[in-house]
Write a sequence for this structure.
């Protein structure tokens, strides 16, 4: 009978002590999530920039041959 009483007391103590860790008296801190904005992109298609640079290089090469 003594072992049963000891086991019951130990089980009760274990249940009570684990629920004490579940929360505290401090207020809960809720952080607002950061909103990531999409990066601003150019309205010009990059293909036009590459074609423009290549055209400028070709014109410069043709002008330098004269």
């Amino acid at each position: 009978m003594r072992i049963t009483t000891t086991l019951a007391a130990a089980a009760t103590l274990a249940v009570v002590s684990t629920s004490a860790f579940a929360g505290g008296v401090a207020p809960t801190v809720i952080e607002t999530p950061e909103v990531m904005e999409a990066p601003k992109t150019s309205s010009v298609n990059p293909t036009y920039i590459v074609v423009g640079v290549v055209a400028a290089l070709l014109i410069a090469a043709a002008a330098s041959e004269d």
User: Anything to note?
Assistant: The chain has a mean pLDDT of 81. The two ends are 113 Å apart (CA to CA). The CA atoms of residues 52 and 58 lie 10 Å apart.
